[in-house]
Amino acid sequence: MYQKDFDQWSKVKKQINVKKVRITIRSGDVRWIIFGVNVASEIDGKGDLFLRPALILHVIGADLALVVPLTSKQKNIPGYIPFALKKKFCSLCLHQIKVVSQNRMLYRLEHVADSRVYEVQRHVMDFYGFHR
User: What is the dihedral sign for C-alpha 93, 98, 101, 104?
Assistant: First the structure.
């Protein structure tokens, strides 16, 4: 059974809180993000740095971004949409979308076309019941 390591996450969180990162982030980037350990069924990162890849859906100012985390699980239920990352199939977890600081962001895995970002944005709008 998966055991959440809140003590280790607290140490990592303190380090990333003081780190000053200045990277160029763009909508459509897929980056490793330090998600940490979260409560209950909120999505966690994995490994020593509690990482998970995520698609940057929208950049907010200079320091924040709205991101959609990825999972290797493929489910045919609302909240999951198929996504290919480096020619491997995975899913975007629309139900786990969140705003993160640039301090949590590590290197870029790839960049997806604007048309794919717009498609994901439409899925988000539909999933949450927002209509333009």
Answer: negative
Give me the amino acid identity at 113: A
- By the 8 A CB rule, do 49 and 36 touch? no
Alpha-carbon dihedral angle through residues 124, 121, 60, 70, given to the nearest 10 degrees: 70
CA distance 100 to 67: 7
Mean pLDDT along residues 124-131: 90
Residue 66 near residue 99 (C-beta atoms within 8 A): yes
Q: Domains in the chain, start-ordered, CATH in brackets? A: 6-128 (2.30.30.110)
Distance from C-alpha of 105 to C-alpha of 101, rounded to nearest angstrom: 7
In the block, residue with structure tokens 């940057």: 56
Q: CB of 87 within 8 A of CB of 129?
A: no
Given a cut of 70, whether residue 86 has pLDDT beyond it is: yes
pTM score, two decimals?
Answer: 0.92
